[in-house]
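Below is a filled-in request sheet from our internal design queue. Each sheet records the structural input a requester submitted and the sequence that came back. We keep these sheets so that new team members can see what a complete request looks like end to end.

REQUESTER: design group, bay 2
PRIORITY: normal
MODE: inverse folding
CHAIN LENGTH: 208
BACKBONE (tokenized):
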């Protein structure tokens, strides 16, 4: 399990120094703690600026190495004109996927932190529309596999909150059918971060 996590994390790097493997191995020797967080990412689909929102739950070792699962979905409406039964309709893209991930903090100093999060997206997308009777119909549906490496910079100004920014790329590895949109695109991350895991642990310690 430990070797698998290290290999997945470093898959985004063409050359990884040996000491990085050793460091992550040492972090994994430390007891894990539960983490949970909301995840907001900006990106592009075709010519549209969009937002993805999701949640993650996982384990963290030594406050440096994380791994776990989450779920993300497309929040911003993305519409296109489609031809159905000889007529034009407004189709809307739906996209959601499970996100196994690893996250390594390679720099920490005071409230500053720089991390490399890497996640896969395993899910499905569809384009839906309304027929003449107003019933919702599916035009196309496809399984989808994504790969999303990134780099983030975080400043923690409170115990339970921080601000972060980052950039990365969403690469579509597989789709069974064409959904009519260009999904491979850059990713950007900017916003407030709430550390729910720390809140839950402190609340539990207070009760004890």
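RETURNED SEQUENCE:
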């Amino acid at each position: 399990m430990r070797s698998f996590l290290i290999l997945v994390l470093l898959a985004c790097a063409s050359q990884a120094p040996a000491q990085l493997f050793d460091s992550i191995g040492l972090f994994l020797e430390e007891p894990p703690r539960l983490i949970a967080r909301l995840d907001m990412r900006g990106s592009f689909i075709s010519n549209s600026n969009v937002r993805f929102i999701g949640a993650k739950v996982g384990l963290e070792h030594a406050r440096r190495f994380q791994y776990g699962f989450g779920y993300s979905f497309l929040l911003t409406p993305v519409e296109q004109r489609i031809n159905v039964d000889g007529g034009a309709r407004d189709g809307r893209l739906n996209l959601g996927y499970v996100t196994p991930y690893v996250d390594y903090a390679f720099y920490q100093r005071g409230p500053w932190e720089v991390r490399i999060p890497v996640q896969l997206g395993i899910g499905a997308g569809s384009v839906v529309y309304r027929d003449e009777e107003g019933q919702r119909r599916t035009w196309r549906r496809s399984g989808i596999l994504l790969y999303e490496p990134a780099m983030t910079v975080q400043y923690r100004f409170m115990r339970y909150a921080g601000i972060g920014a980052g950039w990365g790329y969403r690469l579509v590895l597989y789709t069974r059918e064409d959904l009519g949109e260009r999904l491979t695109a850059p990713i950007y991350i900017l916003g407030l971060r709430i550390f729910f895991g720390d809140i839950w642990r402190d609340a539990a310690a207070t009760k004890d």
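SHEET NOTES:
- The radius of gyration is 20 Å.
- Residues 2-207 form a domain with the Porin fold (CATH 2.40.160.20).
FILED BY: M.R.
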